[in-house]
Here is the input.
Amino acid sequence: MLPKSVQNDTRIMLELPPNWRSCSTEFVVGALLRQADAIGQYHAAALAMTRSSLDFMLSGPRWTGRPERPLLAAHSRGYRIEDWLIYVLPNVDDQSMDELSGLRQLQCGFDLIAPPWAARTARSAVQSFLTRTHADVYSIDSYIDLRLLWTRLDMDKSHSDALATLLALYMQSETTVPDISIRSIH
Here is the structure.
């Protein structure tokens, strides 16, 4: 018989790719988010993964050495750092595009984080109807890879150590993502 804590564990476990420490950040993040999408949990996992990458970035010397440390605040569709919005798209469909058109009213720039399989479509949509808004469109796997790359270089960390830190931060975000966890990162 299993211990009660294991019997009641309803978390969905995402599987890391074999030899994940030697894989690119984009590959690992993409593989995990495809699994989350397959079980209908893409947006929750994408929000948590984005948050983890921003936490990692803000722990680097470019941010910790500032007289006033920037605050990472939650937003209904992502996060905000000072006057910059990080908007995490749940998917690219009519409803998401309608929500995006509402971003014209914002008086700030933003990064639009799209699913890896829909980044090109999101970029085209933003170019067509948000012409007067400063928006950078990224595939989530590329966005997270860039956060890790520059921060780990500043911190003189290896790729595998930075990726392990990202995954550990993600696993600590269980209050954000109660249903999803990553099978052992060790």
